Amino acid sequence: MEDSLKKKIAAYITLACAVLMKQNAEAQIVYHDILPDDSLNNFNVMEYQFLDLNNDGVTDIKFTANRNPTGFDNIYAQAKPGDQFLVYPLSFNVPIGSATSSSNYFDNGYDLVQFYSSFNWEFGPWLNTTDKYLGVKVHEGANDFYGWIRLDVNVPSSKITVKDFALNTSPNTPILAGDIGCISVNPEMPIITQASADTLVSTPASSYQWYFNGTALTGETNQNLAFNINGDYSLITTDTNNCHLLSNVFHYGNCNVNTPIISITSSDTICAGLYSQFTVSGITADNYYSWMANGEIINQNPGWGTFGFILDSSAEVNVAIVNGLYGCADTSNSIHVEVINQIFSGSLTGYPTNIGCNNDSSLLITDLTFNYASYHWYRENNTIQVSTSNIFNATTTGFYHVDVVEPGTGCHYSTNQFGVSPAAPPVPEIWQSIDTLYTGLYFKYQWYLNGSILTNDTLRKLVITQQGNYSVEVWNEADCSTITPIQNFAACSSLQTQISTSSNNFYCENNALIDLSSSTIPQGFLLQWFKNGIAVLSPTTDSTNSFFLTNDAAFSAQLYNTSSGCIDTSNTISFSVGNGANINILSPSPTFYCSDSAVIELNTSSIPNGFLLQWYQNSSPVLSPTTDSTASFLITNNSAFYGLLYNQANGCSDTSNIISYVINNTVSIDVFSDSPTSFCGDSAEIDLNTSYIPPGYQVQWFINNIPVLTPTTDTVFTTEIFSASDVNAYLFSTNSDCSDTSNTINFSLHQNPSPTISQSNDTLFTGSFSSYQWYYYGGILPADTLQYLPVSLEGNYKVTVWNQYDCSAQSIFYYYTPTNISVIGNQNDLQLLMHENFAELKFMNEKWMGAEVKLINNAGQLLSELTVKKSSEQFDISQLPKGIYFISISNSKEILNYKISIL
């Protein structure tokens, strides 16, 4: 609030103010002027303004400017519990705390304005208000205290400005909006102008008191004043509300005012009901402004260079300036503002776009959303409804649009035409891609197989797994449905094309005629034959064919459907000519056995048509010739097996590879440790390894007869033990019955000792261990290696000890005090020492910093207390009478109590 002019006027009328304060003593209005005015306008983050109306250190009213990521922003007022405010803005001089308009009411929290930037939507009781008052009620005890806060709320610039506030400190007593107590300055302040060469005149008021150079002019209580002396003239008037108003100061003598220049910061063409904003430049002194539209005053305000207002119609706008110090006046340039009732455009959409079948209506929605707006709905340019909703349910076909009148501004908006047409049934088709059937884009779907409904298949596509008769029913947006004709489709993944032959696979001669046949060819499919990977013959629907061979060849077939894209490739059959037969044998059995006998199994590659197999053991035939490719044998000695494949009809033959077996075989395993076998502590890592692991064998490790990890071929084993452990390994093979268990290695784990220090007179002791080493303040005492340590120096001692397993540990520090000082307590890094005239507390840990220490007598009375600030604190006990006392030490986590005796 720019109040420099008001403060200059007030300087001249100190005496008058004192008289007025005496008259208004009962009112006791406390007024606060916020200099400069405080604004919330940073909407990148949430921003707050806190007001303490009664100066008790507690916030009474909080204003929040909030930006929401969704674009929905607001300015919110919140009163503290028990306090309230009137939600609607008040004009000057409206009473607060007495009967108010039924449309206004008190609340504890309310949105002053809301604005949705995404839709250019604004709403709220304080929308674009200037110099309006927020009535407040502060509740203290059983009383209410009434006051006001003057605000500007400007939504286009996202800004709320707090200018000043006042509170009536008389309980349960009303206050007028804008009343500041002794001197009331409002936008209608009196103006002094020069009526003639020796006469000054004021704007009309109920009463007048003229002043010259700050001194009241006795008897000068009229609207006019005769004058002829250079100096400063001013006056105080009383208005119809008995409020005292201060005028400008009129300086008679040297006077000058620059011609004001106004500019418009908003558009000079506006919609009816919108604000126009002006700025004044070229003025350097404090001034009083009278704004005019077409020559009529529409507002007066002191000390402001900008002003915003609403014009009902087009007008010429200018401002008259009165110099606040000398009373000189001048008039600005004029700016023409054109006010129009412009029609703006919006969007109208609807769903569904068709009605009919099972759809009875289409829901129309416009993006023109204004609270309390009037919506005029049209079909074929004929009015069908006037409402306050931006949604309309269309039940008849035709072209629709809506006109909207924005409340407050009176601006008109109109949308596009949106057509609602009659519905027509869909015309669906089905096509296939690999294992998926598709139909067109519709609203919903239902698939059928062989006339039965597929309950869970309600999508646009259907994955099929079998051949059958398929159809689909579809619905469009208007809920009209159609079912397709039944069509037969085969699933690509269900195809299993196989080829076979009645011919021999091997021919000793250099040419042969072979016959091939395939499995059944489904309807709509073709078969393509391949020889050595190259297509031969033309695609066919015939499942049989013959081929003449002059060299080795491999045949396969491919079944395909060009419309669905399904492709399936058959097995491959190989033929050999001019090179006889070929055989290899395999054995799924182990080739080594620890036992003196074993049953072994052998098998061969497939035996061609017309061929027989003769098995041989150690070069002697065994069993009869056979067409079986597998055989079993009992062996009792080392044996070598092979097979002879032959064809008596064409003389083709081949001898296989040889597989040998060994019985009475042996294996062994030993384990070794790379680690010590004795450890100190709670756990230890051990490293072991084994002897050579033969091929085909694995090792299973055991700890205390329990298997650990999985079988491995690694000779190294590392693990962690937590107690005494016996470790060994088991060697075995899944391809043999041979195995062996290793030797066992024993590992021991010994606990570390736990030494403590105790004191007897001037000697420190620890427990009984194998060996010792004493330290003073961390430094080693080389000669002190016994269980006890005679001491004479005060300070910190510790000891390292070893047990019979050579495991060692070190004690915590022990603080020794010479025997002429009593050690009452020594625990938790804290010592209590009793001297002749004082008790001393020594703290060896930072955790005691800030702890509370209390000295209490036997009757529970607190005698003294302190807060720990250093590592040593003292209590004076020289004046205490004989008796029992207690010292209590406490921090946030523990409490220690010591009992002392004064003898």
Task: Please tell me about this protein's structure.
With 903 residues, the chain is mainly beta. The protein folds into 9 domains: 1-24 and 182-253, Sandwich (Immunoglobulin-like); 29-176, no CATH class; 261-340, Immunoglobulin-like; 343-422, Sandwich (Immunoglobulin-like); 431-492, no CATH class; 495-577, Immunoglobulins (Immunoglobulin-like), CATH 2.60.40; 585-661, Immunoglobulin-like; 671-750, Immunoglobulin-like, CATH 2.60.40; and more. The protein is 2% helix and 52% strand. It is built from 2 helices and 90 strands. Strands 31, 33, 35, 36, 38, 39 and 40 form a 7-stranded mixed sheet that branches. It has a 6-stranded antiparallel sheet with strand order 1-12-11-10-5-7, with no helix packed on it. A hairpin with a 4-residue loop joins strand 11 (143-154) and strand 12. 25% of the residues are buried. Mean pLDDT is 81; it is low at 1-27 and 183-187.
